[in-house]
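Before surveying the methods themselves, we first show a specimen of the format, giving the amino acid sequence and backbone structure tokens:

:::
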Amino acid sequence: MAQLLIGTPQRQHRVYMTVGIAAIVAIAVVALVFVGVRSIAGGDDRMPLTVSAPDVGAGVRAGTTVTMRGVPVGTVSAVAADGAGRVRVALRLDRADIAGLTDTFTVRYQPGNYFGVTELAIVPGEGGSPVRAGQVLRPEQSTDTISDLLNNSSVLVNSIITDRLVDVTRRATSYTQALTPLLELGFTLEQQVAATQKMRIGPQIALLRRTVDGVPGVVDAAFGSMVELLHIPLSADTVYNFTPIDKTTQLLGSGFFGPLGAMLGSHKDDFTPATLILRSVTDTATTVLGTVSISRQVIPLIDRLNHSFVTRNGKQALSVKMIVDRLPAAAAALGATTGNGR
């Protein structure tokens, strides 16, 4: 290409330098124009808005995400005090994402993720006028950040957990430990029942149900009996005025059973033979009742013998009576007279 230029090498070198510098300047001008155009265009898509509040949520700073209905719609550009006891939070919001937002919105500081990073949430309200760029608003706000939760929890714990509560908890724990043997006994008993129980739970529930089915009737009958009993004049007077019954029981206790006990206690030696005889008779009767079933053996036998001596016209020709020699008292009496015990 050097042969295309006319002139000395020095002239050619100057031409190359001039063309190179001009190309670099042209490229720089084009780049600056492109960046400026993009900056102007980008500025139109971001709406500046300022929120004035008495305080802000912990962790809110420049770069904090601004969300609306859970979707990021901008960022916090700056946080600064205004010198009048309030804080100004400068926002830059995407115009397309906040379409329809009015100046009745509220602000809530909340955790933006599982790590507890705070975000500024815009909650749209009803009515009002559409927000404009550069406005300074004072919306209502709430703070639900993790730091506030921990702070409120510490205040709550300090107010509730006192020395008295600790002492009560300690004593309750001691009582619970004292009930451990009782619980172990209950578990052991339950295991033994489970090991020995052979009937299925279905038949058991059926039996229990049949048993419980009669309870309402019993209760109704009991209350009905009480009501009918109160309708009887003498019974009602007795129920509502039990003074005569009280006096009667006191009289029986002091005037009858008291003297009777004193008499029996003072003549216990005189009653010894009678008590021995009574004990012998009761012991014998117990033995006889254990070996002889009167209803099953003796009574049917006597009935058959009596029916054997009934005449045609239904009259009793002969009445049979038997003395069973297995009764020791009767056998002893008959043995002294007849010698055969019958």
In short: Residues 332-342 have pLDDT under 50 and may be disordered. Residues 235 and 241 are 10 Å apart (CA to CA). The first helix runs from residue 9 to 45.
